[in-house]
Each structure stands twice: as structure tokens, then as C-alpha cells.
Amino acid sequence: MIKVGDKLPAGSLQEFIEVEGEGCSLGPNSFDIDKATAGKTIAIFALPGAFTPTCSAQHVPGYVAQADALKAAGVDEIWCVSVNDAFVMGAWGRDQKTAGKVRMMADGSAAFTTAVGLVLDLTAKGFGVRSQRYSMLVKDGVVKALNVEAPGKFEVSDAATMLAQAKAA
């Protein structure tokens, strides 16, 4: 499992772009993790799945509500990562009103999730391979804080914890 002090693994995440511009076409676009994190402070939170109860009722709304405070604390971008495709993440972002606040990053094949060692295997429940629930504060591609939830919990990966860590960094 990735730990504080480690560099994020090379790879890419996808994001559904609603409005064409800044070199991005309408629809799914792929972003190189190294390039996207270079010189930036990123609050990343990951969760088991789009449109799921805790993720939709608490996790994403918390980060949307705290987006301005996180940016005031030095966070350049907030990423929500889930093992879903970019179309699903785009639809979920519209539903959660994340535009301009949280980037909904798709890890459709779980490549990033596997590379950071935070896979949650829900195959027996019919959900396949997913991501564990966690958050991390990343500066210039290096993990500065990591908060991994115990199975079935939502206690340490929330926006309030991330905000405290961003202020302390």
C-alpha cells in the first residue's frame, strides 16, 4: 500500500469534460497523473462507487461544501477517484453539482487503485473490484497525508479531516 512520502504511481485517470476548451475535448479525456499533479497540491479522496449511499450522501457532498475552505488552505484541486468509467463519473458529478469544485476522476480498470494498493474486492457481492475508501493530500505528486478507512467505515477520509491536514501542511 502507498504510504506518506511515496510518489504517486505513473498512469492516467479519465475525466468527462462537459465543455470543450483548454485542450480538452467534450467527453472523456485522459490525464497523466505525473503531469496533472506537478507543482500542485491535490486533495484526493476515493470511494467504492458512484451513486452509492455513503459516497453520495456524505463523502462527495462534504468535499463540495468544503471546496472553498480547502482552496483557501492551499489545495489547488480536489479529485474524487472511483473505479467507474468517465461517463458514470460525469453523470455523478452533474448529480452532485461538483462543477468547479471537485474533479470526478474515473479509474475504470482499477489501474490506479491497484497501483496504490488500495483495492477492495467486492466480487462476492456482485460489485467486482473497487477502491477502498480513503483520502490523501498530495504535493507535487508526493503523498503528504493518507487516511484509509476501516472496512465499512467513514471516519477519517472526510473533508473536515482533509481540511485540518491541509491547514497543517
Automatic annotation (TrEMBL):
Record key words, sorted: Antioxidant, Oxidoreductase, Peroxidase, Redox-active center
UniProt-listed Pfam families: Redoxin
InterPro entries: PRX5-like (IPR037944), Redoxin (IPR013740), Thioredoxin-like_sf (IPR036249), Thioredoxin_domain (IPR013766)
Catalytic activity: a hydroperoxide + 2 glutathione = an alcohol + glutathione disulfide + H2O
Key word rRNA-binding present: no
EC identifiers of the protein: 1.11.1.27
The Thioredoxin domain, residue ranges: 2-168
Leader sequence residues: none
Transmembrane segments: none
EC top class named in words: oxidoreductase
Coiled coil, from the record: none
CDD domains per the UniProt record, alphabetical: PRX5_like (cd03013)
Function: Thiol-specific peroxidase that catalyzes the reduction of hydrogen peroxide and organic hydroperoxides to water and alcohols, respectively. Plays a role in cell protection against oxidative stress by detoxifying peroxides.
Family: Belongs to the peroxiredoxin family. Prx5 subfamily.
Name of the protein: Glutathione-dependent peroxiredoxin
Lineage, opening ranks: Bacteria, Pseudomonadati, Pseudomonadota, Betaproteobacteria, Burkholderiales
